[in-house]
Specification:
Elements: E1 6-13, E2 19-26, H1 38-50, H2 55-67, H3 109-118
Antiparallel strand pairs: 1-2
Length: 119
């Protein structure tokens, strides 16, 4: 499925009392995700496209994302310290250990440089 299509399923009971599942594909999903904040749009679209969800579940999921949009990070810079919960780690009577710093893998050098540049 490309980014302009959205698959959603519905079910109904036909005249014989048999449950019929209907999978519909919306070609232009701009109406479906128009109210979704930009930072949650990919999450919404991939969830709906990759799962066979009824319309009411799609609507509820959309409403959930809108109601709790401030809970989700908008970027990697949005993650950080939270002072709401404090915890202790009980180490018993174990002595602290010292470990020498480790060099990061060479394969992650570019990603590391990008993070440092973004700071």
């Amino acid at each position: 499925m490309n980014t302009n299509t959205l698959g959603v399923s519905q079910s109904r009971v036909d005249e014989n009392g048999v449950m019929v599942f209907i999978r519909s594909v919306v070609q232009n999903n701009s109406d479906v995700d128009s109210d979704i904040p930009e930072h949650l749009r990919i999450l919404f679209l991939t969830t709906v496209e990759n799962n066979d969800l009824p319309w009411d579940v799609v609507h509820d999921f959309k409403q959930f994302l809108q109601d709790h949009q401030n809970t989700f990070a908008e970027s990697s810079d949005d993650l950080g310290f939270c002072s709401l919960v404090e915890h202790d780690i009980d180490t018993g009577d174990a002595k602290p250990i010292r470990q020498p710093p480790r060099r990061p893998p060479l394969a992650s050098g570019k990603a590391e440089d990008d993070l440092i540049y973004d700071m």
